Structures are given as C-alpha cells and as structure tokens.
Amino acid sequence: MLSIMQNYEGSVLLMDEAHASGALGATGRGIYEHFGLLPQQAIERGVVPLIMTTFSKFAASAGAAISSHVAELKPLLNVSPTSIGTISLPPPTTAAALESIRQVVKTPDLVQRLQENTQYLRSRLAENDFMAIGETNVIPVLLPPELNPKIFGRKLMNDHGLWVSPIWFIAKPEFGSLSTRCTPTRKWIVWLQAWWQPVKCCTSLPLVRE
C-alpha cells in the first residue's frame, strides 16, 4: 500500500488500530510493528500517517485517540465538540487507560501470551470447522446462513453459561457471526478446553432464522 501511495505525495494513510493496539506486534504497538514498519517510514515516502485507536478494547476503559505529525490534521480532534463535551473521559477512566498503556509497555510478555492464546483459539476453531476471520484477539466467527446468531448466542448463554456477541452484517443481513476475544491469562486456556463441546452442540441444533 505504501508503495502505491508514495506516488501520490501528501496522501493520508488512516490506520484503524482499534483491535490492534496492545494485541499486534512483538510489543503490542499495533499494525505498523506487526508488519515491521514505523510511521516514520511512511513519512519518508511522502505519505501522511494518521493513526486511530480506542481504549475500550485493550485498555479496559473508554474513549479513543487520534495521532498525527501534521498540524493541519490536529483539528480533527475538535470536529464534534458536542460529542466531546458529552463523553469526555472522567478521571478514573482516563487513569485506567493510562495504566493499561503502561502495562503494555512494561510487560511485553503479556502481549506474547495474548498472541499465543489467540493463535490457540484460532487453530482450535479451524480444527472444529469454524470460519474465524481477522488476526487479532477479537475473533469474529462466521456462522452458516441457516443459523440465527441471536438464537445461537442465547442458547450458549442459557444452556451453557457461555457469552458471545451475536453480530449481523448490515450489507448482507442473511449472514451473521459471533465474536469472542482472548485474554492474556493462563486460566483462559483451561476455560477454552471446556468451550468446544457446547459450541459444537449448539451448531448442530436447528437454530433457524426467525
């Protein structure tokens, strides 16, 4: 992508790091690190890197951040003053986000363990004929068209105590998916080993669309 964009000097590369921050890259620095790049390398090619992330995923908090080295792009932070005023971060939420960032920087082994857990879950999903997409620890699992994501998710919760997030594709409502995520804890693997049988059981039930 950079090789193409460098032919258009001043073009902006917007990188959505919402699911990548704290999860991708050797030390959790996201997409650039995952591909062995630095934002500076985009700048050197005449491309403007604009990086967006959210604190509601890796930081156990709320809010988001946009970063850029171009002064003209910094007003993006103020394009919606009414929203900024209504959802400004309270001190505890801000402190939680900052501490999460510190933990990612100080303990890269947590990032590595998260990546190992993610790979484990993705490999087990593939072994059990589930179609998982993406690369991060937030894992959407595509369901067969005949399965209703809402009924499937409710069945897992009511009968087995397993929570997943049912999702519909807006552009193609006949397709749905479930989303789950990994954590960097060792106990998570123990939980996962008891996860497969209920999921396979519910997949085989006639949970047709309403």
Question: What are the key terms here?
Answer:
210 residues, Aspartate Aminotransferase, domain 1, 4-stranded antiparallel sheet, 16% strand, globular
Tell me what you see in this structure:
By secondary structure, this protein is α+β, with helices and mostly antiparallel strands. The chain folds into 2 domains: 2-106, Type I PLP-dependent aspartate aminotransferase-like (Major domain) (Aspartate Aminotransferase, domain 2, 3-Layer(aba) Sandwich); 108-204, Aspartate Aminotransferase, domain 1, CATH 3.90.1150. The protein is 40% helix and 16% strand. The strands form 2 sheets. Strands 4-5-7-6 form a 4-stranded antiparallel β-sheet, covered by helices on one side. Strands 1-2-3 form a 3-stranded mixed β-sheet. Helix 7 (149-160) packs across helix 9 (196-204). The chain is globular and about 55 Å long. The termini are far apart. The mean pLDDT is 79.
What is the compact description of this entry?
By secondary structure, the protein is an alpha+beta fold. The protein has 9 helices and 7 strands.
Helix/strand layout:
Blueprint: H1 2-5, E1 12-16, H2 31-34, H3 39-44, E2 48-54, E3 64-67, H4 81-86, H5 91-106, H6 108-127, E4 131-132, E5 138-142, H7 149-160, E6 165-168, E7 176-181, H8 187-193, H9 196-204
Parallel strand pairs: 1-2
Antiparallel strand pairs: 2-3, 4-5, 5-7, 6-7
Helix pairs in contact: 7-9
